[in-house]
């Protein structure tokens, strides 16, 4: 008997009718003789509604209490899906994160999974029951409810699949798979049949919203194949795999963009060892991730330091950066909110020179100014003005993917 782990996102369970459709799909899998674990997100828009309530009371809510609040969205979804399955004659039982002991650290709102106790799930499966598990949530060593960050249900599903030794994890969402660019921005984007873990890690970190980056990291660690596909049709989606045969002329696999960016510029930071690091230590102590770090070469013993954070973290980061700047004797930080990151990604970039030069010249021809640049072996990212992002994505897609004629 095969063991299957399915995950359904918020749009897939966004109404009673859609929950019933998911229940029918799950019941059919169970009727075919497969053991089934279903991980479910909150209903579409519910998490945003809950967080808006918190922000109406406090601009920066207490993170522990925010997690207690946000986790209730998934509690509603798992109960409703279990009810729908039982109505179809399919035995089902709902589980919250603390009930199956998804153990995490204590970084509220961005907690990381330490381990999964699969005992309760295995017992349910052995009894012929569909285990309906709340995504996005866990429990820390002190017994506090924690949440895993946006897209955290993906991470829950992949972690459970790994803990159970499942052959694969099916991620059902409102898109058909991973595309060469966001099809809402670039109509010429094409679906990819396969993406490597390494490429998907880059794409997820650069703004592709199909999978949460931590779910990809877990899949890579356990070499777990992940199939991301639409819950609204039966067409194959995109397989996330360890590696795949690649044509030598496929240099860039996809173009990604991220509008969820804000940039700090800290002018006149004293040029001595450890000073710039003090900014990032202060942010790290508050679990705020930074990206696209640039330290300019200044004059008179002073440097300029710039970096990006997500817009969600801007309100928390601002007072910390301002405080460190004062302590260092630097000038007041400047914040740019109307910025975005655009990137090209592909394994083939390892073996081809000139990708960065082509990217910069392509953007220049489009009249798009580059604010800062960061690179790795398989990606080049540029920070640009948010107003230019759609043009940048289309222009880069045409230059790297359409002209290359790749079909994924």
Structural topology:
Elements: E1 3-8, H1 16-31, E2 35-40, H2 46-57, H3 63-70, H4 72-87, E3 92-95, E4 102-104, E5 113-116, H5 119-126, E6 130-134, E7 137-139, E8 145-147, H6 152-164, E9 169-173, E10 194-196, H7 197-205, H8 213-222, E11 226-230, E12 238-241, E13 254-270, H9 275-284, E14 291-296, E15 302-309, H10 311-328, E16 334-345, H11 355-365, E17 370-376, E18 379-385, H12 389-402
Parallel strand pairs: 1-2, 1-9, 2-6, 3-6, 9-11, 10-12
Antiparallel strand pairs: 4-5, 7-8, 11-12, 13-15, 13-16, 14-15, 16-18, 17-18
Helix pairs in contact: 1-4, 6-8, 7-8, 9-10, 11-12
Précis, in short:
This protein is an alpha/beta fold. The chain has helices at residues 16-31, 46-57, 63-70, 72-87, 119-126, 152-164, 197-205, 213-222, 275-284, 311-328, 355-365, 389-402, and strands spanning 3-8, 35-40, 92-95, 102-104, 113-116, 130-134, 137-139, 145-147, 169-173, 194-196, 226-230, 238-241, 254-270, 291-296, 302-309, 334-345, 370-376, 379-385. The chain has a domain at 3-174: Acetylglutamate kinase-like (Carbamate kinase), CATH 3.40.1160.
Task: Catalogue the unreliable spans.
Answer: none
Topology as a string of helices (H) and strands (E): EHEHHHEEEHEEEHEEHHEEEHEEHEHEEH
Beta-strand content bin: 25-35%
Q: Alpha-carbon distance between the termini?
A: 33 Å
Radius of gyration: 22 Å
Main β-sheet, in a few words? 8 strands, mixed
Shape: globular
Our count of helices gives 12
* Secondary structural class: alpha/beta
Q: Please give the CATH class of the domain at 3-174.
A: Alpha Beta
Q: What do we call the CATH topology of the domain at 3-174?
A: Carbamate kinase
């Amino acid at each position: 008997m095969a063991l299957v782990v399915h995950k359904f996102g918020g749009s897939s369970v966004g109404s009673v009718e859609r929950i019933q459709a998911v229940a029918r799909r799950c019941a059919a899998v169970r009727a075919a003789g497969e053991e089934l674990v279903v991980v479910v997100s909150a209903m579409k828009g519910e998490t945003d509604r809950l967080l808006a309530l918190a922000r109406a009371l406090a601009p920066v809510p207490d993170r522990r209490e925010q997690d207690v609040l946000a986790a209730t969205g998934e509690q509603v979804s798992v109960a409703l899906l279990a009810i729908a399955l039982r109505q179809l004659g399919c035995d089902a039982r709902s589980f919250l994160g603390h009930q199956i002991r998804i153990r995490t650290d204590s970084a509220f709102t961005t907690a990381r999974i330490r381990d999964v106790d699969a005992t309760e799930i295995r017992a349910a499966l052995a009894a012929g029951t569909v285990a309906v598990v709340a995504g996005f949530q866990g429990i820390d060593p002190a017994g506090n409810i924690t949440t895993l960050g946006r897209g955290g249900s993906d991470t829950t599903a992949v972690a459970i699949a790994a803990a159970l030794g499942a052959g694969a994890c099916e991620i059902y969402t409102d898109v058909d798979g991973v595309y060469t660019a966001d099809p809402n921005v670039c109509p010429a984007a094409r679906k990819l049949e396969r993406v490597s873990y390494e490429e998907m890690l880059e794409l997820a970190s650069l703004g592709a919203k199909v999978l949460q980056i931590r779910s990809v990291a877990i899949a890579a660690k356990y070499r777990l194949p992940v199939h991301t596909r639409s819950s609204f049709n039966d067409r194959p989606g995109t397989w996330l795999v360890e590696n795949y045969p690649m044509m030598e002329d496929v240099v860039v696999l996809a173009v990604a963009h991220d509008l969820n960016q804000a940039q700090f510029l800290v002018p006149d930071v004293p040029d001595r060892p450890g000073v710039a690091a003090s900014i990032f230590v202060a942010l790290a102590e508050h679990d705020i991730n930074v990206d696209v770090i640039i330290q300019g070469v200044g004059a008179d013993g002073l440097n300029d330091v710039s970096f990006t954070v997500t817009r969600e973290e801007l309100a928390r980061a601002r007072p910390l950066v301002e405080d460190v700047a004062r302590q260092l004797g630097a000038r007041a930080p400047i914040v740019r909110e109307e910025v975005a990151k655009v990137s090209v990604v592909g394994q083939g970039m390892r073996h081809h020179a000139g990708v960065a030069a082509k990217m910069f010249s392509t953007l220049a021809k489009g009249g798009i100014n580059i604010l800062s640049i960061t690179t790795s072996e398989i990606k080049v990212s540029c920070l640009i003005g948010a107003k230019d992002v759609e043009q940048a994505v289309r222009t880069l897609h045409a230059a790297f993917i359409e002209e290359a004629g790749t079909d994924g």
